[in-house]
Write a structure and sequence with these properties.
- The chain is globular and about 60 Å long.
- The protein has helices at about 1-35, 40-70, 70-90, 95-110, 115-120, 130-155, 160-180, 200-210, 215-225, 230-240, 245-295, 300-310, 315-325, 335-365, 375-395.
- About 55% of the residues are buried.
- It is mainly alpha-helical.
- The protein has a single domain (about 1-180, about 210-390), classed as MFS general substrate transporter like domains (Growth Hormone, Chain: A, Up-down Bundle).
Length: about 400
């Protein structure tokens, strides 16, 4: 199963690269296409992210349900092909409506993250699920390295060059998957497609039937809202707080992604073995809280790099949480669970950009009562505090055997 796992790894890398490539150049691209200043460009960036996220929210359970019925392989291959076309549209866009169209289609293709996660659940034992979800987290980190690096370097050739490169990579990975990806959905774990379960609200209704699941899903949502402060305002924050250009934005994101790869690809296994999933999740949440608070005191670029060895350990929270939830559902509902989680992720990318970019714009415009580009990170810290409180009240004995 090594080649299929490599393919899934690369697919998650591409999903992450889709965020990473855009982040360094998006402020410049929006200002170029929309002819607006940095403060208003942040608002446009938040709106584009919301368009992306709404479709991801709506389609994640639908695509996850389709994969439970028709298989993981066709869903993943078709999505990669459409993803390649989407990047081409973004690359050629010379009007805001084309950027909106690109993000609209991109949200649908990103909904296949739930299918990729379900594939990993299919081939993993209960004991290995959290560790293998950590591998997916490492893939996200690799994308966070390659995407910003590629976006920052290719920005020298214009704000559109990174999108053409991403289109080529997505198409190449689709061809790779066509030859190496076997199907994991068989008659033993296939489930008939049901419309009532193939929408975000129907999926959540099914999750409510599982004891102890809803508190974990709420914790996952709150952590996602907090984390998505990065794709929402990081490039804008870097320009306002440190006067970064696209290359420096890419470097900081790449360095952060490199740390995530080390933590989720190598360190999470001994951490899980030593402390278990629950304590590992708590540790990761505390690291999130510490990091978001620390941004309020960073005034120089070297402060960001110096704190990264601490902040990257927050990356252990979500894989541990995923492991707890995946072990709580039957094998034939893994796609549905991952679809529900995908919808929660999309819900976070609807809520977070809207709120974070508004807060950033308010505290960086000329009429701001105080100039505070780091204000959105305070909201993220508050979201993590709520997640910690809920998780501490959750009882492990509620988990389904």
């Amino acid at each position: 199963m090594r080649l299929p796992v490599i393919f899934i790894f690369l697919t998650i890398v591409l999903d992450s690269m889709g965020i990473g490539i855009i982040m360094p150049v998006m402020p410049d691209l929006i200002r170029e296409v929309g002819n607006v200043d940095l403060s208003k460009a942040a608002l446009w960036g938040g709106t584009l992210t919301v368009v992306f996220a709404i479709n991801q929210f709506l389609f994640s359970p639908f695509i996850g349900g389709l994969s439970d019925t028709y298989g993981r392989r066709p869903i993943l291959l078709v999505a990669l092909f459409v993803m390649a076309l989407d990047y081409l549209v973004m690359g050629f866009a010379h009007a805001m409506w084309l950027l909106f169209l690109g993000r609209f289609v991109g949200g649908i293709t990103a909904a296949t993250q739930s299918t990729a996660s379900a594939y990993i659940a299919d081939i993993s034992t209960k004991e290995d699920k959290a560790k293998n979800f950590g591998l997916l987290g490492a893939a996200f980190g690799v994308g966070f390295i390659l995407g910003p690096m590629l976006g920052g370097l290719l920005s020298e050739y214009g704000s559109r060059a990174p999108f053409f490169a991403a289109a080529f990579i997505a198409f190449a990975n689709m061809l790779f998957g066509y030859f190496v990806l076997p199907e994991t959905v068989t008659d033993a774990n296939r489930r008939p497609f049901e419309w009532r379960r193939a929408n975000p609200f129907g999926a959540f209704k099914q999750m409510k039937k599982l004891p102890g699941m809803m508190p974990l899903l709420l914790v996952f949502l709150l952590l996602s809202i907090a984390f998505f402060v990065y794709p929402s305002i990081w490039a804008f924050f870097g320009r306002a707080q440190f006067n970064w250009d696209a290359r420096m934005v890419g470097m900081t994101l790449a360095a952060y992604g490199f740390g995530i790869v080390i933590v989720q690809g190598a360190l999470i296994r001994p951490i899980l073995k030593r402390f278990g999933e629950r304590k590992t999740a708590l540790f990761g949440m505390f690291m999130h809280l510490l990091t978001f608070t620390a941004y309020q005191f960073m005034t120089e670029t070297w402060h960001v790099f110096a704190f990264m060895p601490i902040s990257v350990f927050s990356a252990v929270a979500v894989p541990a949480l995923q492991g707890l939830m995946s072990n709580s559902v039957d094998d034939n509902a893994q796609g549905e669970l991952q679809g529900a989680m995908g919808s929660l992720t999309a819900m976070a990318t609807i809520i977070s950009p809207l709120v974070m970019t508004q807060v950033f714009s308010y505290f960086t415009n000329d009429q701001a009562p105080v100039y505070l580009p780091s204000a959105p990170f305070l909201l993220s810290a508050f979201s993590v505090v709520l997640a910690l409180l809920i998780f501490r009240l959750w009882k492990p004995q509620q988990q389904v055997a």
